[in-house]
Amino acid sequence: MSLYVVDVESDGPIPGKYSMVSFGAVVVEPGLARTFYGRTRPISDLWLPEALAISGATRAEHLTYDEPGEVMERFEKWVQETSKGRPVFFSDNLAYDWQFINWYFHTYLGRNPFGWSGRRIGDLYCGMVKDAYATWKHLRSTAHDHHPVNDAKGNAEVILKLVEMGLKLQVR
Predict the structure, then answer these.
(1) How is the chain split into domains, by residue range?
(2) Catalytic residue among 106, 138, 144, 146
C-alpha cells in the first residue's frame, strides 16, 4: 500500500460545471521528495473569479494549460510508477479534492487508480486525540500557500507526524 496526499485548485465548487485549475500530489514517505504537479485547461466557459484567484492564475493563463485527459494520463502513470501495492488517496478536504480528481479520472480515462475511496487527514487526527472538533493544521511545516504541491506536502507532513504520534499506518 502506498499513501498519496493530493490537493486541488479549481475555478468553482464542482467538477463538470467548473474546471480544475491545478493539482499536486506527494508520496507520503520521509523526505516527501516524490511529487506530481498538473495544470488542466478549462472544461467549460463557467468560472468564478474569486475561486480562480485562489490558484493565483488568471483566466488567460488557465486557458493555456494542458488538455485534461493528457494530464490525467500522466498522473495515472506517475501513481502506477511510484506505488507499491494499492495507492491510497488522502487530502485535507476529501469532499472537495476527491470529487475533482475522481471526476477527471473517470471522465477522461474511465477509471481511477485510487479506486472508490479516500481518507481525510483531519478525521485521522480527531480520532487520535478523541475530539471531533480538534484542529490539526498547526502540524504542517510547509506553508499553505495554495500552490497544490506545497499544500500537499504540508498535509503529508501531518500524516508523518501522526505516525510519529503512534498512528499505525505504513509509510515507506
Answers:
(1) 2-164
(2) 146
Of 60, 63, 57, nearest to 44 by C-alpha is 63
Query: For residue 169, what are the CA distances in angstroms to 37, 40, 63?
Result: 25, 32, 40
Q: Rounded distance, CA 18 to CA 67, Å? A: 15
User: Domain 2-164 falls in which CATH fold?
Assistant: Nucleotidyltransferase; domain 5 (3.30.420)
Looking up cell 479534492, which residue turns up?
Answer: 97
Check if 146 is active-site: yes
pLDDT digits (tens, 9 = 90+) for 26-46: 999 999 999 999 999 999 999
Q: What is the pTM of this model?
A: 0.96
Query: CA dist 120 to 22, 94, 98, 115, Å?
Result: 20, 5, 10, 15
